[in-house]
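Design request, tokens follow.
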């Protein structure tokens, strides 16, 4: 055998290994309205959450009102503070804000559970958005069957499809396999402040939307954690959300009756920076509580043997 052929023969196994090596990365979707978008102040973050996250990445879709061609544009980036309200993306570059949401403490807690494993976040949340399309033209709705204009559900699909299509999210030259591991949903306030009828429909609307979000990730049993809405009471009648109890009932019913679902109730103890939004420490705690719940569900989920479960 000629030396050149022998060298190729000896190197071939290593070449094949290099070609087939892939990174398996857990991916979680974060969606909802303003308390998922995030109104915490970056300047109030503890030092441990101020730096770029090691082995954590985020694709955040540009949050806009309905019927805006720029909705859902995004770009994979290393996770760091600035993905709260005021964040924007044109699909080529991201503009960070001075705010943050649950993503920082959520990932920090996950990395404690899964050390040295990569984590990916796909986020699309829109301030003020409701599921029901009735009377919510400015902030937008998530109603899947609303077809008069592009809405929040369309931007969610655009965000997820573009994020999942990227084969190397961190640019290290190794193909990434993104494995959906959970959905976090913090929303409902804008379905609780309009009419009793809209609030009464929240359970049905939430169930339908979550079914379709699961379907977008091609897993009809994908773990879901719901954040329960709360009320600051900062209103003359003592209730900001006039029909909040009805939406809370819908959330509790969903968590009780649907498989592979948890609800986080710690929101009831959070302090507020204004009548609608938690103080910075609330978002930090909520991220941790979301992580605890999704970790528990992931331990019960045996659909992904390719992922190491600690």
């Amino acid at each position: 055998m000629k030396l050149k052929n022998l060298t190729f023969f000896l190197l071939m196994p290593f070449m094949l290994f290099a070609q087939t090596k892939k990174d398996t990365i857990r991916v979680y979707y974060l969606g909802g309205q303003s308390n998922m978008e995030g109104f915490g102040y970056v300047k109030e973050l503890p030092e441990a959450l101020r730096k770029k996250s090691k082995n954590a990445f985020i694709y955040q879709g540009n949050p806009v009102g309905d019927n805006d061609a720029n909705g859902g544009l995004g770009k994979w980036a290393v996770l760091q503070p600035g993905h709260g309200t005021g964040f924007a993306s044109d699909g080529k570059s991201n503009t960070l804000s001075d705010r943050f949401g649950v993503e920082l403490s959520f990932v920090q807690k996950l990395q404690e559970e899964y050390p040295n494993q990569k984590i990916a976040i796909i986020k699309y949340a829109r301030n003020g958005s409701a599921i029901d399309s009735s009377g919510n033209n400015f902030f937008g709705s998530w109603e899947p069957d609303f077809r008069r204009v592009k809405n929040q559900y369309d931007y969610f699909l655009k965000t997820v499809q573009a994020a999942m299509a990227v084969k190397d999210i961190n640019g290290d030259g190794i193909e990434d396999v993104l494995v959906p591991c959970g959905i976090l949903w913090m929303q409902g306030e804008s379905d609780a402040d309009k009419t009793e009828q809209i609030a009464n429909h929240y359970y049905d609307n939430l169930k339908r939307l979550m079914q379709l979000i699961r379907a977008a990730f091609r897993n009809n049993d994908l773990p879901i954690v719901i954040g329960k809405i709360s009320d600051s009471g900062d209103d003359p009648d003592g209730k900001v959300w006039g029909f909040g109890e009805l939406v809370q009932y819908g959330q509790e019913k969903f968590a009780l009756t649907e498989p592979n679902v948890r609800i986080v109730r710690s929101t009831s103890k959070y302090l507020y920076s204004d009548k609608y939004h938690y103080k910075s420490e609330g978002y930090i705690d909520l991220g941790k509580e979301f992580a605890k719940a999704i970790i528990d569900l992931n331990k019960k989920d045996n659909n992904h043997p390719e992922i190491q479960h600690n």
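Comment from the thread starter after seeing the answer: thanks! Residues 6-18 have pLDDT under 50 and may be disordered.
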